[in-house]
Amino acid sequence: MTEQDKDKDREKDNFLYPRSTYRGQVKPENVVFNANLQEFAQRVNYICNLETGGKVPPDQAYKQIRELWQQLTQSKKQLRIGENPFQSEEES
């Protein structure tokens, strides 16, 4: 694969899967969850567009989105997002 082909692949990936810069509290679990959340949003968008275009029936779209939601919820639990077992030094 040439450098030009690699550049085209990168451009295509950036177009199809854009990522926004994370600007929240920088902790590894927050950054990972943000990436998961962005992927969830993009996949839901694709499913909605396929359903709108008549390529996927509504019940199948719903099931796919529900499964993605469950995966995102599991990710949140595993990363312990929203839990605060210890106060940060700033809060004391």
Structural class: mainly alpha
Distance between the termini: 55 Å
Rg from C-alpha positions?
Answer: 18 Å
The fraction of residues in strands falls at: under 5%
- The arrangement of helices and strands along the chain is HHH
Number of strands: 0
Helix count from the secondary structure assignment: 3
What is the overall pLDDT average? Answer: 87
Unreliable stretches: none
- What percentage of residues falls in helices of 4 or more residues? 55-70%
Q: What would you call the shape?
A: flat
* Largest sheet: number of strands, sense, barrel closure: none
Provide structural commentary.
With 92 residues, this protein is mainly alpha-helical. The protein contains three helices and no strands. The mean pLDDT is 87.
How are the elements arranged and paired?
Elements: H1 3-16, H2 28-52, H3 58-79
Helix pairs in contact: 2-3
Structural descriptors:
92 residues, mainly alpha, 3 helices
Question: Briefly, what is this?
Answer:
The protein is mainly α and 92 residues long. It is 66% helix and 0% strand. The longest helix is centred in the middle third of the chain and has 25 residues.
